[in-house]
Each structure stands twice: as C-alpha cells, then as structure tokens.
Amino acid sequence: MFQWSDIEGEGMDDQLDAASAELEACAARFVKEHRLPGASVGVVMPEGLAWSGHIGFADLNRREPPKPSTLYAIASITKTFTGTAIMQLEARGLLNLDDPVTKHLSELKGADASIGPIDAVTIRRMLSHESGLREEPPGTDWATHVREAMPSEVLRRSSEIGTKVPPNSQWKYSNLAYQLLGEVVTRVSGTPYVDYVREHILQPLAMASTSWSPLPPELDARRATGYAPRTFSDELTIAHEGMLAWSEAGLWSSVEDLARWLVFQMGAYAIPESESPILSSASLRSMHNPRYLADELWTRAWGISWYARRRDDGIWIQHSGGWDGFITDVCFDPKARVGAIALLNGIGDAPSLAMDLGAIARKSLVSRAPEISPPGPTPEAYKSLLGVYVDSEYGELVQVEWRDAALMVVMPTDPMFKVTLLKGATPDTFIVAPGIRPSGETVTFERRTDGRVVSMFLAVGTFLRLDTID
Description:
The chain is of the alpha+beta class. Helices cover 22% and strands 24% of the residues.
C-alpha cells in the first residue's frame, strides 16, 4: 500500500509526482528482495512529509498493514535527541562540551583507569563516539537479553566502567556513553531525562507520537510488531522484547513524527542566523559537521550525535537504529534539503533504503525548473555596510552583499570565497560563521563621524571601502 501524505499541508505531492512510481518500486522491491514483513518509508522536503509508502504488514498475525502513524522502535536514532538536549544545556550555560564527565557524574571518579584517566572522557567526546568508553553497560549480554537500563544502577558499578582505548584515538561506538549522557541531562537540568526531552524537544515540534517504552495505551495500539531474522524457512518469529533503554536507544516513533524531526534539522540550512526555542541553526549545523573520519575509505565521518556518509555524488547526514526486531534510519542532504526515512519491522539494510529513496527524490528535484521568488528586503541596519572593499596590501577586491537572506563577504574573482557574517555584540561587529578557515573570527566595520563606513576588519586584515564617483 502506498499513499501520499498531506499531514503538513496541500500541494507538496506535486514536488515528487514524477518520481512517485520510482519511489514505490524502490521500496516494494527492497521489502520483497529482503523478505521482510513490512516497512514504512517517507521522503521529506523543507515543508514537511512529501511522500510516504507503507508496504507489507505491521503485524503478520492480524494481517495489519502499516500506516503513516504506525510506531517503530527507532533505537539509536534516540541519540540525536539526547545530543540535542545536551546542546540545549550548553547553550544555556549549564555545562561545557569539554567538561570531563566526572564533573557531572562524580561516581565515575572511581572508574577503571588502566587504559587512561577517566577525566579525559569529556562530554564532547562522548557525543561523537571518541571517548573510548566500553560499548555497553557492565554485565550486558545481548544473547541472553541481559542489560541494565538504569544509569543509577550502572553507576554503582563504576569500577567496571572505563575506557577500552585511549580517548580521541579512534572511533568507538558506545551505548554506555549515551546512557550516561542521559543522566547528565537529568542532573544538570534538574528534570528526569524523559520529561526533559518531552518538554523541550518533542512537544515544541508537535511530535506527539514519539515516546518511550512502556508506551501509553493509545500509542501502544499503533506500534508495529518486530520480527527476528529468518533462519531456515519463510516463517517469521516475533523478536524478543523486554530490554529497556532510554537516552541511548529507547524511543518509538512514526514516519509522520520523524518527518518533523528532519524538517527541523534541514531548517538549519535555510537561514544562517535563524534562532529557535529548541536549538539555533548554528548549533544544529555544528552537530551535523563532521569531527573526524571513521573509516579508511573516507566514506563516513562522525559529528555530534549524527554521522555523515559519502555516497555517489552526495553527502547524507544520518543516524540508524536497531533494536528488538526493528532496523530504522533517517537521513538528509543538507545541500539539496531533502530527507528520507526507512522504518523496518524486520532485519534489513535500512540506511541503504533511506539513501536510495533520498537519491531518487533529490534527482527529481534537480531536474525540475527552479522556482523564482521575489527577493526579500535588505535589513535597514545592513544597508550602509554594503559595497566594495579593497585589501590595501594585495589589492584584492571583495564585496559585502545581502544575498540569500544573509550578510556575506564575497570575492568576484573567486566564486568559492563566501564568508557569512553572524550578528556580534554591537551593530557593526560580526562573527564569521562556521565551516571555513576564518570561522569564529571577528569582523568589524569602522565609520566616520558622519556615519559613513570607511573600512572593514575581516579576521586578520583591514579592507578599505571604495566610494563610488558620480
């Protein structure tokens, strides 16, 4: 079963009308070839969920098909919500990403130091899986379904917690790190982790169908059944359930709700200076920005709670999850601003399916004629800054322009030279946006007594303004 989704408004289906048949075929072929019970998939545009497909069965015994509102265990995609909570607390000045975790979890001062001191484990390193911490809480045995979900109990065994490799030396994925980050959220905010995320992230984004186990009755009735991998026949058995998780892998969600999550992520690339009651665009982009390469082929890199994967001619920011008979993935291309969702209630390569669907949608959008919109007005405070400036030593010319809803410094002779300026402490002071060599440096405009701008100090040098001659 396939359907267009109209949860975010009318008309978005037109954007992918030409690609709908290809999207449907891609999703159905994947489910058929991997002999899965079913899947819910979707394509997301900046305006919301543009297309969704629902294949097979959410529950085999009841022959119940999935719907846009069907819930799946999204597992480690939960980490992107936990990371956002930490970034919110950092923005409020309640913690620093470079704090040692022991500053907030004093029990860890008794951790195993045979590889190195626990104080080298920082919040930032935990967020990007470079802390070196062990993968799971002490005593975990996935084969027998034994795992401690409560951080308070895990911290009682602090002597069994420690780094397995030196911090910042390699990629080492750690569910334990994110379990402990959830406890950091609880202690720093003074609010239990689950309540904090619901109040500060889920509710503002209207993600009412996203929650933790045990689900309330109205949500539990909508969840898909997870199935274990096939063995020697076509019959599928229901996966074991019962192991709980919270900040590392505990959320359930739907295509509808995850579309809202991706819209929020992609919005960080619409207006560079946009603020949000949840998290600023600059902070979101810093989460997506790769911190280090995770493989020798340079195809995957880790940021904060997200990772980037190079595939064909594009980069996909994404996170996947796997838990109790479910494999899931969300991904988006920040440049094209298109995303995709793949939720499986069986075992299959959800990241590949999501990227395949995203690539089809992206190709369809690239082939369309671009929409031409009237330009927005230049902010009055910026008009006096616009113009041509020259480096007095080398004679290079740059232009200060208002373009694409941002204040920029561009170089006519070098199309790659684009410096976006973010608001600073005073009207004539700015900060260079992240992502380029002078990021974080100060840009200051100087004026004459009559208010005329005469120069611009950009990062390390002064550019003189050139006046026009009538």
